């Protein structure tokens, strides 16, 4: 793993002009820390004028600042492609957001589940939640790393969830997490059915005990295609890295879709190439071979 064999019609390696990467379990270490080799590769991308775009289910401000503010990062795709962000100004360039109306309707449909499931509002670059959802995070049986990340990245708002939604400028997406405890399967089924009642929504995910709810148009793949078109970059000159179901559209859309070695089976099956695991800095491993 880690080798690259992308070639053009003459058999020469295709040099990327833009690199997209998921964050959790792809670019980041298993404990969600930054890996030195991956950060060194961002330095090299900046030096060589190759764009780096973090593509993640995270809100913009939940992406590590060392990545958001890196000289290679001029754009970001947070909230599963609900928005494309200009990194310097934080201006929304592409808006495929869920919006307040549909978020409120979904909240109403899942109201009976909120004693067993979080409901988190991804809005204006942040993750907003109330006290009840906040307290549930530590009770869901998630990994220590996931629990710590969720608690650190959420903004606690002392308001009912309805008001949190109404007060937001842009509701990008919604997250719902039910963990791994007793009754989790029933909660998961009910939550998915509530989303599927509205055909203008879809749900995806990056781990099994939660779903990420977005506008049906929004995906990392649609954001990748839009940004390449905006920048005048052929998709054949794009590389994308991922590990989870919410990366599938991005892997398909990129000129070269790369799965890290720890990726889910669906992604491994569809990727053009497979690199080392995220723990082994698979992102850097692949690009070191590609760039020479």
Automatic annotation (TrEMBL):
Pfam families: Hydrolase_3. GO terms for molecular function: magnesium ion binding; phosphatase activity. It comes from the Bacteria. InterPro entries: HAD-like_sf, HAD-SF_hydro_IIB, HAD_sf. Transmembrane segments: none annotated. One of its GO terms (cellular component) is cytosol. PANTHER family: HAD SUPERFAMILY HYDROLASE-LIKE, TYPE 3, PHOSPHOSERINE PHOSPHATASE. This is Haloacid dehalogenase.
């Amino acid at each position: 793993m880690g080798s690259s064999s992308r070639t053009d019609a003459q058999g020469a390696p295709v040099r990327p002009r833009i690199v997209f990467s998921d964050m959790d379990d792809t670019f980041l270490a298993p404990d969600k820390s930054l890996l030195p080799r991956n950060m060194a590769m961002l330095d090299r991308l900046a030096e060589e004028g190759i764009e780096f775009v973090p593509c993640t289910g995270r809100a913009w401000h939940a992406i590590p600042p060392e990545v958001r503010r890196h000289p290679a990062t001029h754009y970001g795709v947070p909230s599963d492609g609900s928005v494309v962000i200009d990194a310097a100004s934080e201006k929304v360039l592409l808006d495929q957001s869920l919006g307040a109306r549909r978020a409120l309707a979904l909240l109403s449909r899942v109201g009976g589940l909120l004693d067993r499931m979080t409901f988190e509002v991804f809005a204006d670059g942040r993750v907003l939640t109330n006290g009840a959802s906040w307290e549930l995070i530590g009770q869901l049986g998630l990994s220590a790393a996931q629990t710590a990340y969720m608690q650190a990245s959420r903004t606690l708002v002392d308001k009912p969830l309805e008001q949190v939604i109404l007060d937001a400028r842009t509701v990008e997406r919604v997250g719902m997490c039910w963990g791994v405890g007793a009754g989790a399967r029933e909660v998961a089924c009910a939550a998915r059915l509530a989303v599927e009642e509205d055909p203008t929504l879809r749900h995806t995910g990056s781990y099994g005990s939660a779903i990420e709810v977005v506008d049906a148009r929004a995906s990392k793949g649609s954001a990748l295609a839009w940004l390449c078109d905006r920048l005048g970059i052929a998709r054949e000159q794009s590389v994308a890295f991922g590990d989870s179901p919410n990366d599938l559209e991005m892997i398909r859309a990129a000129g070269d879709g790369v799965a890290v070695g720890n990726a889910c089976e669906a992604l491994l099956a569809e990727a053009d190439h497979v690199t080392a695991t995220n723990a082994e800095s698979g992102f850097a491993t692949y690009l070191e071979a590609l760039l020479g």
